[in-house]
Amino acid sequence: ADEFTIKNDKVTLTFNENTGKLTRVSTVSGVDAAVNQGFYYYTGFDSGLVDMDLGDCDPATGKGCPKQYSAEVLAHHKWMQSLTPQQMHNDMADRHHGDASGSSQNSGAYIFRPQEASQKPKDVAFAGSIPEVIVHEGFLVSEVVQHWTPWLNQTIRIYSGSADVDFEWTIGSIPIEDGVGKEIISRFDTDVVSSGVFYTDSNGREFQQRKQNYRPTWDLRVYQPVSGNYYPVNSAVYVEDTNKRVSLLTDRSQGGSSLGKTGSGSIELMVARRLLVDDSRGVGEPLNETVWVSPYVGGECDGCRYGPGITSRGTHRMVLESPKKDGLSATRAGAEAMFSPMEFFVTEHTEYDAATGSW
Amino acid sequence: GSDGPLRALEEASSLAQHHDAVSGTSKQHVAEDYAMRLARGHALASPMVTEAVQILTGLGPEVDVFECPLANVSVCAPTTALADKGFDVFVYNPLAQSRTSMVQVPVSHATYKVLDAATGDEVPAEVVRNQMPDMNGALPHGASAPQLWTLFFQAQHVGPLGFRKYTIVKSTTQETPRTMTTRKLKTVGGGVRRRM
């Protein structure tokens, strides 16, 4: 068979046996969605790539080029050279000033700007490679562990009695040997017919409707078709049509949008960023968090130095429900569980002694 | 009061209202400073949390209570130290309505039984192998080694703002299959080999 599944009393997940990717989620209450989940990355805008002096290096062949200019950097440089001045202006005009000064705006802590305004994110799993997949099927918990790359893993988990699907991702240290900053997203392409409309929470409260390339209170001129369609997601983002609603709950604030291949039925959440240049908005250093490497002396960094990029772990919870139910009932319940987990405390075994009334 | 155990946490939390702390728009050492103040505030408040748990559960001051703030990366020193003797787990529900939810406890053995302390009944539980113990090679400094197993069990009907106590005991025999089938799909090239 080209597929394998894990299931519990509420939901069945179907995976492609050859790619190891999730392809379908079906609940016993009859809601069924094609869901293709994967990790992709945008390359962060770096004005240094625009006017870098290549000397006698030939971008087309890479001959005579300094080794730090990776093929990706050179290809981008070649693309920039091909633009007419007007195209260069349109692509880079800064939304705030509407003039060429935006051309040097880098991506960074304050700004999300992909290297090309309409960039299609690249597949982290580098199309050729296929993840190592480990499947555990239990009566209380079933999970599929996907080892995409040495720095990107994910565990997709379902629990008995619940139709929710947890995606626990572990990302880092994001590689930057190719001289390019990367902005990693987790993208869920579904068959929901949402026609470019999606909903994000507003500071964890009521949901706002979002439409691609549109603002409700002014006529938007689109300079950045990708980042201009990103919104803050503090608790949940969802797409829906008359048959189903796919919600994704986040365990922290993330950038999110609905772009995908067809702009319909897709949800993407930015989970990690590692950039190589500052965005000139006051921080004065790139968003390139690295781990302090010992020697830790008594908890203090004594002679520490920067090590590899940080690693982070988080969870997205998918709620698949019929839109006919009272508004967002499952999504709200999921958010409650996500933000108020049951804490646990550990003690040695204790027995209560009624005679003395003590443990 | 101004020098109470919560003071440091209150100050760190109020400082972290700045957008730099919320969204990371700061230099790395500033971000780490926010994290250090929150961690120090948490540590200074911890004895008060312990006292609260002892009082609310009726345990009294003679029973040590431990938290596992790094449970999400499978680090929980107390369950390592108590691995062979077994231990108790008090689950706390912070919401204002009764709740049933899965609890995940990092453990270092594959065979445990979970008993509901109130009824003595065995609670459905499952131990699953931790497939990513090393967090891509980036475990927090100074943390104890990550556990290789995670104990899942369902905490049923935990009352609003309430606790429920579970007793975790090592089970010598496999009364019921703790882990059903774990198969590794080694997807090589286009083809797939499935090994049981």
Secondary structure blueprint with pairings:
The complex is a heterodimer of chains A (359) and B (196).
Chain A: E1 3-7, E2 11-16, E3 22-27, E4 32-43, H1 71-82, H2 85-92, E5 122-123, E6 132-137, E7 141-149, E8 152-159, E9 165-171, E10 182-190, E11 197-201, E12 207-211, E13 231-233, E14 236-240, E15 245-250, E16 254-257, E17 266-274, E18 290-293, E19 296-297, E20 300-301, E21 305-309, E22 312-321, H3 329-339, E23 343-347
Antiparallel strand pairs in A: 1-2, 2-3, 3-4, 4-5, 4-10, 6-7, 7-8, 8-9, 9-22, 10-17, 11-12, 11-14, 13-16, 14-15, 15-22, 16-17, 18-21, 19-20
Chain B: H1 7-15, H2 19-23, H3 28-57, H4 77-81, E1 87-93, E2 99-107, E3 112-116, E4 122-123, E5 125-129, E6 149-158, E7 162-170, E8 181-188, E9 191-195
Antiparallel strand pairs in B: 1-7, 2-6, 3-4, 3-7, 5-6, 8-9
Overview of the structural elements:
The complex is a heterodimer of chains A (359) and B (196). Chain A contains three helices and 23 strands. Chain A is mainly beta and 359 residues long. In chain A, strands 1, 2, 3, 4, 5, 10, 13, 16 and 17 form a nine-stranded antiparallel beta sheet that branches. Chain A has a nine-stranded antiparallel beta sheet with strand order 6-7-8-9-22-15-14-11-12, with helices on one face. About 3% of the residues of chain A have low confidence. The radius of gyration of chain A is 23 Å and the shape is globular. Chain A starts with a strand and ends in a 12-residue tail after the last strand. With 196 residues, chain B is α+β, with helices and mostly antiparallel strands. In chain B, 25% of the residues lie in helices and 31% in strands. Chain B has a four-stranded antiparallel beta sheet, with no helix packed on it. In chain B, strands 2-6-5 form a three-stranded antiparallel beta sheet, with no helix packed on it. In chain B, strand 3 and strand 4 form a beta hairpin. The N and C termini of chain B lie far apart (61 Å). The chains are: A mainly beta (359), B alpha+beta (196). The interface between A and B is large, with 69 and 80 residues. Strand 6 of chain A pairs antiparallel with strand 8 of chain B.
